Amino acid sequence: MAEFWLISAPGEKSNQQSWERMNTVTTKANLSSNFKFTIPDLKVGTLDALSVDLVTYLTRFQWDMAKYPIQQSLHTLYEVMAKQISQIDTDLKARSVAYSNIKANLQGLERKAVGNLLTRTLTDIVNKDDFVLDSEYLTTLLVVVPKANYVMWQKTYESLSDLVVPRSTKKLMEDSEGGLFTVTLFKKAVDEFKAKARENKFVVREFNFNEKELQSEKEEMTRLAADKKQQYGPLLRWLKVNFSEAFIAWIHVKALRVSVESVLRYGLPVNFQAVLLQPNKKSLKRLRGVLNALYKHLDGVAAASVADAVVDIPGLSIGNQDYYSYVCFKIDLNLIDQK
């Protein structure tokens, strides 16, 4: 990406003379690469009719006669562009929120599935056969045992309570820190077992097996993954198409701004030449000095820093801009590149 300056100077006997004069003084010292920036003869009306706010960010320019007929007034053209950008912005917010919600919900479930054995979901670990279910007297607990204590667990789990079912433990899974074991015992001994387990650094996980809930969680993750995949492609295509649409509208707004500023400054009849300059990075100050010298006769009291008006088109904004004796708008494509 690069930085461009879009400037406008009043025409001389012909716009070509204005172009050649500016082009000569800037290119002979290799200060910039210059391109003619052609703006059609827009319907300007009177100077009073031009006193409207226009907002812009510009990169490239190609006037679209079909979308923005130049027979229409500047105000009408501006309203068409603003409405287009506003609609894109509204649609973007709605689509982004929908996709972001799906992504966030899926990530939440995925995080639960990759945590340690004390916190992670057990959906993909346990099944019905691992538990004693529908028993009036017996229950199955899940115990997290540190790896260093595997041997101790096997030797002692039956003695943590007199009501533990012998040889009822089974390792379901392990991670880098420890393993998840089952143990079956009488329900009335659960509190005693938990206390003794805690003394031996065995952690009993609070878990009640519910096949419907586990199945629902699996289905939810599958559904969210499918929804995310289904929405990603269309969203990406929509972004590509509408970024292009917004970008084109953006450029046309800038062209309107240049046209309005030029007429307000240089007067009627319309006679100005717009030029797009790409300054050489090492020559920014020199280029600005050359342009100031070339056009200093246009405004002898030009302030160095006059705040530009701020207009809010959703998705587009303009900050303060320096004032020069000629019309000039900075075009920083690096802002787009960073995003």
Labels describing this entry:
2 domains; 339 residues; four-stranded antiparallel sheet; alpha+beta; 7 helices; Alpha-Beta Plaits; 42% helix
What does this 3D model show about the protein?
There is one protein chain. The protein has 339 residues and is α+β, with helices and mostly antiparallel strands. It has two domains: 3-81 and 249-338, no CATH class; 128-208, Alpha-Beta Plaits (2-Layer Sandwich), CATH 3.30.70. It has helices spanning 15-27, 74-114, 150-156, 190-199, 211-266, 284-294, 334-338; strands at 3-10, 32-36, 138-146, 170-174, 178-186, 203-205, 272-279, 327-332. The strands form two sheets. The chain has a four-stranded antiparallel sheet, with helices on both faces. Strands 4-5-3-6 form a four-stranded antiparallel sheet, with helices on one face. The longest helix has 56 residues, at 211-266. The chain is elongated, with a radius of gyration of 35 Å. The protein starts with a strand and ends with a helix. The model is unreliable at 44-59 and 301-319 (pLDDT under 50).
